[in-house]
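Problem: given the chain below (194 residues), write out its structure.
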Amino acid sequence: MNSLLGEIRYALRMLAKGSSSTLAAILCIGLGIGATTTIFSVVNAILLRPFPFADPDRIVAVHTAQPQNDIEHADFSYPAYREFAERKGAFSEVAAFTQRSLTLAGKEEPERILGLDMSASLFPLLGVKPALGRLLRPEDDRPGAPGTILISHELWMRRFGGDPKVVGTSIGVNNRPSTIIGVMPPRFQFPQKC
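Solution.
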């Protein structure tokens, strides 16, 4: 054991004598590790771990811009989306979604989450099926329809303890009663985070 400690002390003395070359070597190793990690993260996100929906190379996002108001990315209004969907032209299917903050209320404490308002055509367009329950139907996607909600697998596990009987129960969403109609698959996120 004494010889190992002696070797370590000797190595530290040698590193201290050549401090500039040691610093350069450590810097090169650090940069190499950082560059390798960055490249792997990009390759992993794009090639090794593809998007969790069908035909991602055929999906495009369309948004509006309002340069006069310095807004580069604005949501479509519902009437504009309906008109776009009716005249889809080159697109085989059109869906709409917008992220927004939601407040869930029920037996537990109210909880603020990030959710989506979406058209019924979104998940069929993505080729995603729920792990439990059903997706939105066209009759759910009309003005004045009763409130329906799909919840993430993570929310289902955390807030409802993974209870399969959650489908069909009512929960308050932004002070509006809504029926939970389905639970999405584990680790599914949309919009996708890379």
